[in-house]
Amino acid sequence: MLTSLAEAAARPRPAYRSFRATVARVERLTPHFTRVTFAGDELAEFGTAGFDQRVKVVLPLAGSGFAHFPADEDWYRAWRELPAERRNPFRTYTVRAVRPAEREVDIDFVGHGDGGPASAWALQAAPGDDILLIGPDELSEGRTIGIDWRPGDVETVLLAGDETAAPAICAILESLPADAQGAALIEIPSPDDRLEVRAPSGVDVRWLPRTSPGARHGERLIPAVRDRVARTCRLRECATAADAASRAALEPTGPGPGPDVDAASDAVLWDVPEGTSLDGDCYAWLAGEASVITTLRRFLVKEAGLDRRQVAFMGYWRLGRAELD
């Protein structure tokens, strides 16, 4: 028994683990954004690495709560092996703020009309509701796992995404050094969905409301990125490429999900350069609806000449598809 205890004590702490918490506060920030503050003694050790670090929000099952959710380190494998009716649904989010001294974590939920379990839960959440977070352990050597923001030593940064990427972009902006230069372009459902964010004075933050509730995703973001790159990023022939390229090429040619996306594939489009990026003039971080993000990445790499090692792109969701667990 003593040997087992010693071995357990010497075993490295997992980079990610489960944290039990309850809802402390619910704040409706805008028509489409809701901030939920979670509290609990276990959150004193919740990781605080910042940027776009990902966590899982595990939702309770009706009647059984979290009774069947695996508690060990290999929780995902065990979860997959459970009968479907015993699998708690979960979704991936970016932590908006962590306050270890207060044992609190903020997560901003976006309601985008998909009827998903997480957005539905957030709309009904109330103080005292139980929740389970899978997140970084502040005492683990792997506490920075799940961060895709890896700019290296660059002169300017470009962040671009839709409302699902807005919490991550805001967290990145507030983690940047005071002398950072660049732009953050964020497409949102309506003018009333602008969020308050503290950004370095040298980073231009632009909120881009879509023209109508049924407008196509990317209608504001794609031209805004092209214009920004043409005007400010010192890339190989980028201004010439952006001016010469037809914007019509970015428009969908049919009812499908958009250019560069395989509608039959379940794969979420995600490509983040390993380690730090190639140092250079500009680094781009793109996240949101998959077809829009791949279109932007294609423009930056193929037309504007940005090295692909300086572009991180993440398809957070796919138009017409529910989020995959």
UniProtKB/TrEMBL annotation:
Record Pfam families: FAD_binding_9 (PF08021), SIP (PF04954)
Q: Which residues form the FAD-binding FR-type domain?
A: 16-143
Q: What is the lineage of its organism?
A: Bacteria, Bacillati, Actinomycetota, Actinomycetes, Micrococcales
Concerning InterPro entries, the annotation shows: FAD-bd_FR_type, FNR_nucleotide-bd, Riboflavin_synthase-like_b-brl, SIP_FAD-bd, SIP_fam, SIP_rossman_dom
GO-annotated molecular function: oxidoreductase activity
Name of the protein described by the UniProt record = Siderophore-interacting protein
Segment Disordered: which positions?
Answer: 245-264
